[in-house]
Each structure stands twice: as structure tokens, then as C-alpha cells.
Amino acid sequence: MPKLWCFLSTITFFQLCTFTFSGLELVPTPPLPILPLPSYAQLKWQQRELIMFLHFGVNTFTDSEWGTGHENPAIFNPVGLNANQWLSTAADAGISLVILTAKHHDGFCLWPSKYTDHSVEKSPWKNGHGDVVQELVNAAKPLGVDVGLYLSPWDRHDQRYGHEIAYNQYYLAQLQELLNRYGSVREIWFDGSKGKNAPNMSYYFTDWFSMVKELQSSINIFSDAGPDVRWVGNEKGFAGSTCWSTINRTSLSIGNASIEDYLNNGDPKGTDWLPAECDVSIRQGWFWHKSQTPKRLSQLLEIYYNSVGRNCVLLLNVPPNSTGLISEADVQRLREFRRAIDTIFSNNLADKCSVKVSSQRGGKGGGFGPENVLDSDHLRTYWAPRDDDKEGHWIEIRGTGTDGGLRFNVIRIQEAIGLGQRIKRHEIYVDGKRVANGTTVGFKRLHRLEEGVIHGKIVKIRIEESKGLPLISSIGLHFDPFWHPNGQRPK
């Protein structure tokens, strides 16, 4: 009898505990994050999707890409320079951050630096009283566009280059000058590019990065090795079909060509959140050349799908000409590009569909339901399956029209990356037929369907493999009228 009483007492105790715990679970908690996680500044950067680069300097007037460092400052005279035109062009294209080459490899400074006379101060432009960086900042502020700066480590003009201590001090002084004088800078751009015959010397990147963060704590630092944004490993604007925002910084070094594939793909076991930025020019060259014309719209869309559509941010260079304006052909192509993006993605066919999922964390009304994938928040709200769902994770979109039919050729998937990047492998089926498959998703994955326009009723996205629970923040079905694979014309 005592044993029976003890047994019944134990059961009653656990029932009480279960009742208590179930009471606490009335509001289900979010899943645990999968480390590493992005910083606030990195999340804001990721949401920009499209950034503009402005390569401008003495090369604009010498029809060259890499200056010699011996150019006479007198050649720099953009008599019609209008930074308002640059920034309105950016704003019209939906761009929220513009990065200027404050100093390129030739060493010519677009601001009147007190540490060198090789600058706009020695040019005839505005009788030596001009400051391109200040003009950029002044034009950006009223439009709500943020500013970034590029300061080339390789300097072919300054005599201190090659003398390690002296040049690193000079470079650091100019960094301080730029970050103290021109207000908030959202991205600072470093690279390791240098010619084969350049003097051998070490850059004190660690010192530079520390100083940058001291002066502007919310800034993102770009380089091959971050620490906030990494290079994608090429200048074509293409990320790898697998592209992790995570990577091991200890495996990276600036200017090391042997790590380009690693940069392109990232690392699922990476200990650092270091997303990739895809840099490419709207023209063949980085600086303006009279003989060149902008890329076709189809080329820009191809770049967009392979950069933004592969979990990256696209850094598109649009170089001002020798008058000091962005050429009209480039302005028109950018407008055309923005209109095309808006045409494709402004309408989500899934919005009018019903959504089913394999399971739901917390049950119906628990806050992690499938309705979250169709709301306007593509980051903070998401669908989460149950912890104990071992049968596979899937989400199904079903047409609800008269015939239930859907007509689309682009599928968009987005993860809630604020809790880490998770999806390793996924497949997409339309009416039971597989139409696309891939590996990583990240902030945004775009599948432009190889067979073109599809007519179907049920779209099923299966998450075949993930790190922890997959968390889907948004799904879209879109129609791209510019996509004609194998000569197909949309009906």
C-alpha cells in the first residue's frame, strides 16, 4: 500500500508540473538561434540589396583604369560636376547607399587632405576650393541616401609608399580625416589590389579596422576578410549557387587569390557572420570611358538573380563622366533596371493563396504560423515547425481562384536570418513535379525557372536538410516578363 501511494503521489506531482509548464507554454517561445548571428548593421546592409559604386578621379580624364600616380592634378576639371544628379539617379533606382572612390590607386584625393597636396586642392576645378566628398555628402542627406567611402591602400603617388611605418601612419591619418570630417559613413571599402611591381610592404589592417570602429561604431567594413562584409571572390557580380553568410575569418587574408572559391561559397561551419558583397560595373570598365556603353537589361537582371537572388548584396558601379555627371545612357539603363525589378516583384501571386505546412510551432495562433510567410515583414516574422517534427519540413501554397491555377516563372524564398542561416538543401515541386532545387537560401533565394512559365495549382517547398529548424520568413511566386529561356515567349 505505501508503494502504491508513493506511485500515485509521483504521478500527481508530474501532472501538476505538466499543467504548470503547459500554462507557461500558452505563448510559445522562439526557437534557439543558430550561431553565428548578424549584427544590427549587417542586417540593415543586407536589406539594402542594391548599392551604388562611383569610380571617379584622374582616370576619368586619362581614359585609364589604373593611374600611374604621376598624373598632373590640373587634368581633373569636371566643370559640370553635379552630385545632386548622382544621388537623384541612385534614389530613383531604389539605391540607399552610395560608395565613392575618395582615393584610388593613383593616390589622387577627391577631398582637400592636409596630408598631401596631390588632391583637388591643386586642380583647376572650383579654383582649388572643391571637395567631391563633401558634395556627395551634401547631396545625399536630403534624399535620405547613406554614404560610403573607398580609400585605396595601394598608392602609386605618395613617396611614403613602400616605407611601412611612414605609409601606414599616412593612411591611418587619412582614414581619420575622412571619418571625422564628413559625418556618418555606413560602409568603408578596403581591398588588397596592387600591381606586380608595387613595392613590397605590409598594410596594418588590424590597426586600421580598430580605428574605424572607434570613430564610427555602426559602420560596416568591407574587405576580403571583413570584418563585416566580405568580397564575393570575383568582379562579375555572381555569388556561388551555394552561398553561406558564415565563414571562418581565420582562413581569410586580404589580396589572396587562392581563397576566391571559399569567399564565393562561404562555409556552413563558419564561426563568423560575414556576408558577401558582389561588385560589378554597369560598363566594361570601372571608370568612365567614352567608347563604352552600359550592359543590356538582360545582363543586369542575370547579375541580380545571381547576387541578390543568392543571399548577397549587389554593388553596382556607375561611373561619372569627365563632365562630372552620370551619363544619360547609364541613367536610363538604371531606370529601366529598377522598373524591371519592380515589375517582377511588386506582385506576389502567393498572396491570394492558401498555405499549409508540415507542422507549426505552438499550434494554431502560436505566432509561428504559415501566414507569416505572406506578410510584409521579411525578417522578423516567420513560420517555424515543431521541435519534434521528424517527418520532414515542407510548406505548400495552393491556388484558390476559380480554377486554382497559378502562372509564374520565379520562386522566392527567404529565411529569418536574425536567428542564423539554416537551410542546407531544398526542393520545389509544382503539382508533384520537381521544377527547382538548391542548397542555401539565406536572406533571399530566387529561382528563375529554367523551363520558363509554369501553370500549376500546388507549389510545395521541401526543406531536405537544415541546421536546426528551418525558419521561413517569406515566400513569393512571381512572373518575370523579361525571362525567355530557350526562346520561349510568355503567353
Automatic annotation (TrEMBL):
GO MF annotation list: alpha-L-fucosidase activity
InterPro entries: GH (IPR017853), Glyco_hydro_29 (IPR000933), Glyco_hydro_29_N (IPR057739)
Keywords: Apoplast, Glycoprotein, Glycosidase, Hydrolase, Secreted, Signal
Locations listed in the record: Secreted, Extracellular space, Apoplast
SMART domains tied to this protein: Alpha_L_fucos
All residue ranges annotated as the Glycoside hydrolase family 29 N-terminal domain in the record: 73-336
GO biological process, one term: fucose metabolic process
Any Pfam family: Alpha_L_fucos
UniProt EC number: 3.2.1.51
GO cellular component, one term: lysosome
Signal peptide residues on this chain, from the entry's feature table: 1-22
UniProt-listed SUPFAM superfamilies: (Trans)glycosidases
Similarity remark: Belongs to the glycosyl hydrolase 29 family.
Name recorded for this polypeptide: alpha-L-fucosidase
Species of origin: Prunus avium (Cherry)
Taxonomic classification: Eukaryota, Viridiplantae, Streptophyta, Embryophyta, Tracheophyta
Gene field: LOC110767734
